[in-house]
Amino acid sequence: MTTQVKAAAAYPAATTEQISQTDKRHTLHPWADLATAPTTGDLVISKGEGYHVYDSDGKRYIDGIAGMWCVNIGYGSSEIAEAMAKQARELAYYTPFGAMTNPLSAELARVLAEMAPGDLNRVQFTTSGSGAVDSAIRFVHFYFNAIGKPEKKHIISRLESYHGSSYLTASLSGKQVDRTYFHYMDDIIHHISGPNPYRREPGLSLEAYCQQLLDEFEAKIRELGAESIACFLAEPIMGSGGVLVPPPGYHKGMKALCEKYDILYILDEVVTGFGRLGHFFSAEPVWGITPDLITCAKGITSGYQPMGAVLISDRLFDRISGDNAPEAAYFTNGYTYSGHPITCAAALKNIEIIKRDRLCEHVREIGPYFLERLKTLEQYEIVGETRGNHLMACVECNISGNPVAAEAKDITAARTVDKYCDEAGLIVRPYEALLILSPPLVIDKKGIDELVSIMAQGIERATEELKAEGLI
User: What cofactors does this protein use (predicted)?
Assistant: First the structure.
């Protein structure tokens, strides 16, 4: 029997229009608007260099979002490309299951353990941030079942958080605007308020606001019963929820409550890891805590290959392994491409470049300049606040004056600014009333000045349009 296969179209398509038409016909994009997906054209990015990308017509843009928080070392690294090619020639793939490994997977696990805080020395590799968070939760449930505490199943996450796009991690995420026609788990997942100092009650000090958040967490623990709660899951800074920077002492206070009630603390460093806040991991140097587990992805390869990882405390692993292992203790979680040798080659070379080029030090030096320059945008009447930490920032539009939540006109303002930024050669990430920024770590002062200048022009043009429409 002969199977008929349709002939593939030539690659690449000759024109932007051909690429766009092919894409619209055959691709379902993440976060696609299905009302417009069949007809709306796409921006075709075809080249990248440093902190710039180019569309298929040759137009250059400052990539203000590093792809998706991830192209930390910038575009066009021949070193990573060559490391991947070399590994592909030597060993493209072998199974990681059971007791199988490859040299680069073992070495990357050692390097990550060396950089991680405390005793987080055990690594499970995944293929994404979603997979890393999913695997962290599975480990936690396995752990408590194995030590005879099967009642500890419940997970506390936060509103406006984002933890991934698998069935479990989408349910863990707290961004209500992302909840559409899918089904979400609600039996063991609970959400408390995320820290949003900009939206705190008028007149409430940061110290009092922090205590309010801690009190809410403790009240939720008492409501559910500490004996039923497995873990608390938190991003150091809530990224796509609006770059929500917690008040001083927040993570220390939450960690102390977790220790008090025997709840494991998972720090989701998928966005913040590998230099975005000036450190490979922010847990200890920025927030002063050592979590029980850390999840990471994105910057681990600077986006050159898909990869994620869970870093697990020796204290936890040792309690359920070796002589302490329960009967039939098979950890049946993992992926065909866990610790993929080509991906590990990319990660190891990426980490080498970050260290050699002192990119963490560069971020610590240039990050305050980035935030200072963005602060100047608060002079415009449609900007409510600029905020962030080093190369992770947000401009929030607020023309409604609503101190509690964004209104439709605020969202319109952000989308209008985004439109003009795009026209002027700057890619930002609009979300509701927010304009989110996370440029490659290699950006310099010249690039920052140009980025802020384009944003200022975009804000000015948007303000004129909004006034013409009677929204201001």
Answer: pyridoxal 5'-phosphate
In what order do the strands lie in the sheet containing 293-296?
A: 120-126, 308-313, 293-296, 264-268, 229-234, 154-158, 189-192
Of 331, 357, 383, the residue that ends a domain is 357
Tell me the C-alpha distance between 350 and 80, whole Å.
7
| Coil, helix or strand at residue 387 | strand
Q: Nearest 5°: CA angle at 186, between 184 and 187? A: 140
CATH number of the domain that residue 363 is part of? 3.90.1150.10
Provide CB contacts within 8 A for 299, sequence distance 6+: 69, 70, 72, 273, 274, 275, 276, 350
What's the average model confidence in pLDDT over 189-207?
96
293, 140 contact by CB (below 8 A): yes
Between CA 140 and CA 229 the distance in angstroms is: 11
Q: Total structural domains in the chain?
A: 2
Residues 93 and 182 occupy one common structural domain: yes
Question: Within a domain: residue 368?
Answer: yes
Query: Average of pLDDT values for 319-345?
Result: 95
Q: Per-residue pLDDT for 276 more than 80?
A: yes
Tokens of 158: 């936060």
Residue 77 amino acid letter = S
2 lies in some domain: no
393-397 and 429-431 beta bridge pairing: unpaired
The size of the chain, in residues, is: 472
Q: Report, as an integer, the average pLDDT of 98-104.
A: 94
* Full-model pTM: 0.94
Nearest-angstrom CA–CA distance, 291 and 312: 9
- Give the count of beta carbons closer than 10 Å to the beta carbon of residue 21: 14
262 and 398 co-located in one domain:
no
Query: Is residue 11 one of the residues assigned to a domain?
Result: no
Its domain, for residue 442, covers 16-76+359-469
